[in-house]
Amino acid sequence: MDGESVNLPPGFCFSPTDEELILHFLYSKSSLPCHPNIIPDLDLSLLDPCQLNGKALSSGNQHYFFTKVKGKRGTENGYWKEIGVTEPIVSASDKVGMKKYLVYNLADGTETNWVMQEYHISSSTAASIGRSTKGRRKSDQISRSKWVLCKVYEKKMSQSQQGVNCYSDEEDTGTELSWLDEFYMSLDDDLEEIISLPN
Questions:
Q1: CA atoms of 184 and 189, how far apart (whole Å)
Q2: DSSP secondary structure, 98-151, as one string
Q3: Model confidence over 103-118: pLDDT tens digits?
Q4: Is 39 in contact with 156 (CB distance < 8 Å)?
Q5: Which GO molecular function, any one, fits this protein according to its record (predicted)?
Q6: What domains can be seen in the chain, in order of their start residue?
């Protein structure tokens, strides 16, 4: 699939839950040497977010791809910066993974409206992968455990920010909360749900 355009046929929508992204896609990528998958592998350092269309699996304004974990997530024109928010992903009351949030900043530090959700397998799930790959070379196991699944999308922006993004066809028609305000407000609901989970 490398280098080819990955698009869904008309009428199809790729809209998996966080749990499905971890268990059905990222777990398979990390544990099976040959796995059927519609999500491509991309090198995050070679692509700015506005270049993902046609390279990642795109559904609506969301772009999905696998990449290897890197300490620095820089591109030619900017870098992905963690905002310090990590959410656990739970399945049947077990933590199966986590989701980190990052924002794309231009090289001069200007924050854009591009957001990335980076999905990781939990250490307990990774340990079970290690047990299931006992017969493989250690280097193979290590390289496969380094994969993450990324979902990238562009938040709506205000007119004052329109010079910042790679492209935008939308105009702001009124006063709106910033995407960061909306994001933090949405965490209240998620936090209540997480607190109510059994330990």
A1: 10
A2: EEEEEEEEETTS-EEEEEEEEEEE-HHHHHHHHHHTTTS-HHHHHHHTTEEEEE
A3: 999 999 999 999 999 9
A4: no
A5: DNA binding
A6: 18-195 (2.170.150.80)
Q: Are 191 and 184 in contact (CB under 8 A)?
A: no
The pTM assigned to this predicted structure is: 0.68
Question: How does pLDDT run across 67-79, given as a tens digit for each residue?
Answer: 998 778 899 999 9
Tokens at 134, concatenated: 């006992």
Contact (Cβ atoms closer than 8 angstroms) between residue 28 and residue 53: no
Residues 6+ apart with CB under 8 A from 88: 95, 97, 98, 122, 194
pLDDT score, position 146:
82
**Residue 156's closest CA among 129, 175, 142?**
175
Per-residue DSSP letter, 83: E
Residues ≥6 apart with Cβ < 8 Å to 110: 164
Those residues whose C-beta lies under 8 Å from the C-beta of residue 158, and which sit 6 or more positions away, are 172, 176, 178
Using alpha carbons, select from 14, 75, 86, 71 the residue that is nearest to residue 49: 75
Q: Are 178 and 72 in contact (CB under 8 A)?
A: no
Q: Using alpha carbons, select from 111, 117, 112 the residue that is nearest to residue 167.
A: 112
Take residue 28 and report the two structure tokens written for it: 């398979």
